[in-house]
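Here is one chain, start to finish.
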Amino acid sequence: MFPVTPEKWVMPMAEMWINMGPQHPFTHGLWTLKVKVDGETIVDSEPVIGYLHRGFEKLCENRTYAQIVPICDRLCYVAAMSWDHVYVSAVENMLGIDVPVRAEYIRVIALEIQRIASHLIWLASFMTDLGNLTAFLYAMREREMFLDLLQALCGARLTHNYPRIGGVSQDMPVNFPQQCSRTLDIFEKRMREYEYLIEESEVFRMRAQGVGYLSPSDAINLGVTGPPLRGSGVPIDIRKHDPYSAYPDFDFDICVEKGCDVYARYRVRINEMYESCKIIRQALKTIPPGPVIGKVPRHIPKADGYARTEDPRGEAFFYVQGDGTDRPYRVKIRSPIFVTVSAAPAMLKGYKLADVPSIMGSLDMCLGESDR
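Its structure:
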């Protein structure tokens, strides 16, 4: 027999698909990312959602307008206040309700507290993906302070059911401004620790800078909104470009980074937390007296209404169509993550398999709002 050379035993390299999820730790929810690799290099990818579908839009057709508010909390339980607000805003648009100014100020305060709490849980989970467990503990520690504030407003820490059609369920407690200001003072000092702890890490910089590039044109064409869009250098923030509630009364900046990578998306959210603190301080200082809920008509017309807001994850949209009864005929939701996750192939192609948790973690996935 002729001797067999080792070269004959070498198998040719071939592309293969790898399923990451639905139980992979990086997913932070029930979804699957199919990744096509050539060796360790990603050549294609396909996000697969639908594991958590609950038929939310259909459920709304069998509930009165007021009964829908509590289930909006479940769309995204780390940004529950945001989804309650966009729904009641759509109904108010349909009914032509004038919301009292004080109620609008309280809504803005609650929304920005919720934005900080949402960004903190993103930061905690994102840092865990990258191996920084200390940052996880810090972020969760500070998040508890903001959940305390939300609990002071409405009595709940996760699913709030605080906004109402026409205003909010109750006024803020007498000592709430002092409690809120004290929390902001502590948080802003500790944010400096976050930045030092995270950004001075060479491991973090290697896994974030220059990774997950998403060009401005790709971000716009794919419908990406929120921090991922602003991380690609596109200065679009609905609070500024299509103002709602009391946001026109406040001075704040649109947080934009031009790096178009994981690091840029991280910096956008860090800066947004500072801006949220600025908005809350202005609202607490200038909030006017008055009622916290307006007059709601007893007769519901055959009409439709819509609202869009700047959710912590991007553009949230609610469309409500009424048929003259006490229940909506049709409800349609636009989830920011449902659209943003479609940009995964553009961000992943050409990078290594080990970069997947870093790149996808920078999107701040929420499957409750995506599957609906």
